Amino acid sequence: xxxxxxxxxxxxxxxxxxxxxxLFLSLSLMxxxxxxxLPSITEKLGMDEGQLGVALLSAAIGxxxxxxxxxxxxxxxxxxxxxxxxxxxxxxxxFSYFLATSFLQLSLLMFLFGLTSGIMQxxxxxxxxxxxxRDNIAIMSSCHAWFSLGGMLSAGFGTVLMxxxxxxxxxxxxxxxxxxxxQLLSYPKFLxxxxxxxxxxxxxxxxxxxxxxxxxxxxxxxTAMVSEGAIADWSGLYLRDVTMAPAAQLGLGYAGFSMxxxxxxxxxxxxxxxxxPWQILLNGFLVSLIGLLFVFTGSTWxxxxxxxxxxxxxxxxxxxxxxxxxxxxxxxxxxxxxFMAGAGYIGFLGGPVLIGTIANHADLxxxxxxxxxxxxxxxxxxxxxxxxxxxxxxxNVILLRIKKSV
Length: 406
Hints:
It is built from 16 helices and no strands. It has 406 residues and is an all-alpha fold. It folds into two domains: 14-200, MFS general substrate transporter like domains (Growth Hormone, Chain: A, Up-down Bundle), CATH 1.20.1250; 209-406, Up-down Bundle (Growth Hormone, Chain: A). α13 packs antiparallel against α14 (333-361). The chain is globular.
């Protein structure tokens, strides 16, 4: 299609935009390579499931702290320098995972990774926002597609490379070298971006926490990230235990989900421009809802199709929430992105644990019913956001009555 060729040409060949897209690719290449070796590293260090949970929690705590630090740093040094600082720190700490000699060392390194990767995500998403506003162009969803693509590459080709090299340190060293080379070639194109500093001078009293539209967007982000994390962690078990799929098909649910998410993000900017961002949020939740209904049929092939549809629906939700959070009056772009990042981390990290708890007390079907419930909440939030955007009179009356009653 013309729009997919246009997006590919824009991000691959335009020297102004690919240097930004590669930041997303760099994060997923390093993280995906680490995930490939996660079982072997925990085995080498003699860690049990409980210790691994503590280490992962350390990364989550670092990520949550980073939403506050990253917002402050962005306004001090600018989003371009923040993005470069984050990608260099993220690369260093993931490489250091492979040198860890104890559970405590790995936990500390994972905390530092969470801190720097969170800072990086605030920086790189703010960089994209600055470029979108400067050039009057939409590339947020396409840039997030590079993160999804990097995850697929590191999981697919990374597994092949793991077998060929049989040397974890060399493997992560190659990934780190590729990332550092991309930064060396790309940093002049984004390092000088500092819109966050300029906006901070104009918006010193931004009422971020009290902004209802920002909270509604946070609901969209949380529901999408909880559901995304749940499908990433539990789709294979659902196919095995509920649809009784054979072992050879257990990975197809997440594979279809990931592929459609990547393709959907590459096309997301086009649809956002054509349909409008608020309609895109509604459509995304509707497609996800239809997909999840397919999953509940109990048929393996219907479930596989359903997971793919859910991936297509979810693909545009988080990038669009990031983009919209930067356009709220009285809220600086870095503050809006930091708020979305914090909400997203809570959803992505806490969601799978919550689904697992529900599944443990009932079954996986009940866990996925909770995902369905979250999608419905997100759909309502998206509907309210759209009505607020078009200034619906009856919604304003309802909200006014609610405010008076409170």
